Amino acid sequence: MKKDVQVTVVGKVFKPNRLKVLALNRALNEYFRLVKWYLSFNSKSKSFLHGNCYEKAKQLFNMNTALIQTARDKAVEVLKGFEKNRKDDSVLRLKRISIRFDKRCYSFSKTTNVLTPYWLTLSLNRKERVSLPIVFGEKQEQRIEEAFRGEWKFTTVEMVKRNGEWYAHLVLTKTVELIDDPETVIAIDRGERNLAVAVAISKNNLDKPMRGRFWRGEEIKRVRGLYSHIRRRLQGKKLLKKVKELKGREKRKVNQQLHIIANQIIEYAKQFPKPVIVMENLNGIRRNFKKSRKLNKRFHSLPFRKLQTIIEYKANLKGIEVKYLTRKETRNTSKTCHKCGYVARIKGRTFKCPRCSLTYNRDLNAAINIAYALTKRMGWGSCEPPKPADEGIGVKPTLNAGSSLLQ
User: How far apart are alpha carbons 39 and 243 in whole angstroms?
Assistant: First the structure.
């Protein structure tokens, strides 16, 4: 089975001159007005907007036709995202936007320029083009070089203005071959105490889940707690500009930890023959989680969906398929005994089955049930009641151990 995988490589516009910055700023303002104009029609249909608004947009806005079309797509995406996450009677207020360039209105090339070898040329309107020097970090540059060798395809570029600086987000795609006939299910559960728990079940030995792994996510919790405390103090002093600056730093530190954890999860999966990863579909999970105020805050601060997204694209790059279970399929996974199937009331971090006397880690028990839900869907089946799995061990993310596991 083949699947298209997408990654985004971020580069910074390196010391653009004043005229280029002014041109980008003018284009951003015009693009922002254009997206808001499309939003005023309150339509999620691209065909409707194109048929009824495209010719008028060409008359009203000083942008090339490709940007007029990407602005239409942006407006549809913004409206769909707003309605999906809408709370009560909130009103859509667009505060910022990035400019999307497709292959019709940009070119990206490698040169012998001493300033930087990478240059991005953008067509802003019918008469104006700018060429911008782009610099990348070490890992981002490696991905760009892979694209120039033909391993990836350049698709779109998002020009983002942040804190007065301009950044180019280059979107790359390639087609990967996924494992067709998996032999091992890797189930991943998420929770407030353990950010992620993984366990493996082999098609050849369904009755014996293999030793799991725990990722507590202590550093993510520490970073979130620290920046929450700093924000409260800054807000008390009305230093709102400083609060905005902290948001970017916090996000970068959290994302770094998520990538480290995702790398370790992929390495765990790769040690088994023909793995497939399964996770719970988290749509609507935050709306359904209602506990104490303190626990709600801790739970909602954990980036479960972001971690799933990173795991999925990293797994796909290795040829590993990722499947998602419905809420119905994962109902009561933490309350059901994976050995006898009894649904019990649980308290604390330990699962105790009153029927078969199994005493087990609550999160690992849930992960095993998620794995069995997928084996049931795939028709693997088992005639014998499953045996208790080995207890799992914890894994601590480290910067230089993206693929290492503590044994």
Answer: 29
Checking if the pLDDT of 113 tops 90, the result is no
Q: Which two tokens stand for residue 393?
A: 């061990």
Where does residue 162 rank: exposed (0-12), middle (13-18), buried (19+ CB within 10 A)?
exposed
CA dihedral 338, 307, 186, 319 (to 10 degrees): 160
Q: State yes or no: pLDDT of 161 exceeds 50.
A: yes
Question: What's the pTM value of the predicted model, to 2 decimals?
Answer: 0.80
Residue with tokens 């799992």: 392
Question: What kind and span of H or E run contains 7?
Answer: strand 2-13
Report the greatest alpha carbon distance in the chain.
Answer: 77
User: Residue 228 corresponds to which tokens in the numbers above?
Assistant: 């929450």
Are residues 262 and 195 in contact, defined by beta-carbon separation less than 8 angstroms? no
CA 241, chain centre distance (Å): 27
**Nearest CA to 260 among 298, 223, 210, 209?**
223
Residues in the chain: 407
